[in-house]
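re: ur msg from earlier - yeah i can do the pyridoxal-5'-phosphate complex, just paste it... oh wait u already did. ok heres what im feeding in:
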Amino acid sequence: MKKEDFKKYGYQLIDWVADYLEEAEKYPVKSTVRPGEIKDQLPVSPPSQPEGMDNILKDFNHIILPGMTHWQHPGWFAYFPSNNSPASILGELLSAGLGTQGMIWETSPSATELEEVVMDWLRQMIGLPEDFAGVIQDTASTATLCALLAAREKATDFATNEAGFPRILRIYASQEAHSSVEKNVKIAGYGRKNLVHIATDDEYAMIPGELEKAIRTDLKAGFKPAAIVATVGTTSSGAVDPLKAIGELASEHKIWLHIDAAYAGTAAILPEKRWALEGVEYADSLVFNPHKWMLTNFDCSAFFIRHPEILTRTFEIHPEYLKTGVDTEVKNFRDWGIQLGRRFRSLKLWFVLRSYGVEGIRKIIRKHIHLAEIFRDELAKDKRFEILAPVYFSLVCFRLNDGRPEEELNVFNRELLQAINSTGKVFMTHTTLKGKFAIRLVVGQRTTEERHVRLALEIIRTKTEEILKQ
Ligand SMILES: *Cc1c(COP(=O)(O)O)cnc(C)c1O
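and the outut:
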């Protein structure tokens, strides 16, 4: 592509993205294509000759766009958000333009040192103790895997890296822990049956007494407890495991404590939500995702670790071709995670933190929480609806409950969710809470306003009436 063309299309695409961010609302939130519909429109073989940008962009508009589900739509209430912002997009653009690969300090000193600095800013923002060091991972799943690998080596005095598992190691997480914990237990070689699911209380938080029982039973059986994964803001309902009580057990038995705060960690930048991380001083590691709720384009996951030397000893490799003269003076992030090559992700984070300032981000997070509370309060006024879990952050779990048997309620609410989403105006997802089908509404999209939440309420009521009439 000629430089002039690059500029022409570049400006054109910036215009497109700028409009998109304001007008995402004109699309149905959730793509309506059927499986295979996109593939059917694409050639099976790659083009042998160059094609012009006009053609490529035409196909983007006609083929790709209809197959998009719009995460930046203000009616996005599904899963958890993955929001972005103009500042983040510009940072991402520069990172792509520089095309740097920051595996070691020498391959771009700025990539390493900016990451150190912005990660320490984040550490301060969520109130972590000073001895936590940060590194950006692609996702929370990967960060938790890193934690479990480091815990594995710590528990076996680095013997597992050398010769495989010398004994059975056990991992503890609540029944409500994210599926990535189970996946990582498999990947890290612990074996799925060595993941002990701890029961939760009425508010879906881990019961420390049950954890204690499980640890004692395992010790008696000759197993070695290796790590506890506590969740702050569970995926199903936003529950908060009691870190202090869990931390005391971890510390008593010298078990690695990892905190998964993928979604809710962002809320800890608000003084009034700091309580959620009370007890964090016991933690060995913590992850939260700026790519969920902190206006930073996917992917960008913030992983903090108290003893980075355990992490680097777990991962380090010293091939001749990666040795440099400054290795003793700098951080080489290749030893802080699984991948060798690393994207320059701190650039977009830096852009976000500077262009909003901490206060600017706080304002948006507070607004989201406030909107979720409005939703909960308004919905609860209608006695046919039931709020199924406490709303600590911006996630509300609810269902219609008009007194019919549980089985029928589950069928009804599933149908209701489908009807809500078929409007294309809003998108919500579901979970089950103690066997009950629950609809989840999460506020976290940057452009979501009160009117979008009110529209969601109106849609819920209308669709409920429609189904009840059938
Ligand atoms: C979303 C989520 C994850 C997974 O996040 P990824 O960054 O997509 O891996 C893990 N844990 C919790 C509690 C989550 O909500």
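cool cool. The mean pLDDT is 97. ping me if u need the other ligands too
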